[in-house]
Structure prediction request, 212 residues.
Amino acid sequence: MVAQWTVGILIFQGVEVLDFAGPFEVFSRTRLVPGIESRRTEQGAPFLVFTVAKTSEVVRATGGLLILPTHTFIDHPPIDLLLVPGGFGTRSLLKDDVTLHWLERTASTARKVASVCTGSLLLARLGLLRGRRATTHWGAIEELRSLDASVEISTDSRVVDDCVVTSGGVASGLELAFYIVQTIYGSAVAADTARFIEYERSPRLDSHNALE
Prediction:
């Protein structure tokens, strides 16, 4: 049996819906056995995906979508893959010591760290992108640069992998999730998952080990 990866997705007031919901869908619908039948239950799912918030209060995402977090900073299981989405709410988190401390602590023990859109600003704030290649939403490039001038920002890639995996804005998070699925479980599993959710990939990758 393949060991299950735990995927903890940070959510917060003002989080961009597709930034977290897109990767959540990809990871939660991934199966190692192809086809429809393997997805009728959660049995055998290679990823255990959950949301994490500072408190158990309802989170209001962009557009007014309300989400009840699965876990809080103090009661979540160990996280193998830490995913930090973006949204306008990231700006207030840049000064939120509780959230920043949790991110720093969790990133230090995670097997893989990733961000979607302006989630990269939080990683840069913590120095996790220092000297690395990274990307973000096109509208936040200067913000990212101002937080850490040592980051080599890629403006023409949807997904950049330089130990930390970052993606462009919003829908690019789907590509990030598929990229991670492919790096862990291979191209056939990623392709089957894309087929199941009827998504046509358009990766534009920048990686030390770029996938074909």
Observations:
- The helical segments are 17-29, 90-93, 97-109, 119-125, 141-147, 172-185, 187-196.
